[in-house]
Design brief:
6 helices; two-stranded antiparallel ribbon; alpha/beta; globular
Length: 233
Amino acid sequence: MKIIALIPARSGSKGIPEKNIIDLCGKPLIQYSIDSALSLKNIGLIDRVVVSTDCESIASLATKLGAEAPFLRPKDISGDKSKSIEFIIHTIEFFEELNEFYDAVLLLQPTSPIREINKLVQAINLFNNNKHADSLISCYREEYINDLVMYKSDTKNKFLQPLNTNHNKGVRRQEHGNVFIRNGSIYLTNVKYLKETFQIISDNPLFLEMKKSHSVNLDNIEDLEILKKILCG
């Protein structure tokens, strides 16, 4: 199976300025995802490591770090409201115009920098061994949070509305079992499925379990501090 690793890194960010290249323990954030992808390429599990960005300086940095940045992403699919599927399809079509075809796309978001190489290898092997699977996502096991402890807010009256009518009936959360939460670290999707449905995740995706502590997604300064504590030692 021919797999292209795709790392998105548009310029700008509302929460953290230039988030994708912010310094994290002496390395730009994007380098963690590039290094992970290059490790997979070095052992023959993927064929290309491509960064999709609308920024020339990020493209230059990506190239210096060993990835490819063969194009600049069009502005009309680089805004805050642009969907990930748009730059994925753009990348697929870019290479298909060059007569290069891929079976699957491995999406590695820079905002999820903690990835063990053995987990990435497991993900690819699992996907390769399940010929009927259209997609795979990484998740962590959540043993506490479920709808028994979830509420919607009533902004007018400052009251809460329970999502589960048994929220106050003494039902133990353990009786509801575990749930798996998508952590945004690994997305692996069949190209045919991407093009036919314009979706990254199928209705019945394969999943790879990761540690909850490895599932920090960088959205704000608090997340950055957590990542520093984990990665910087």
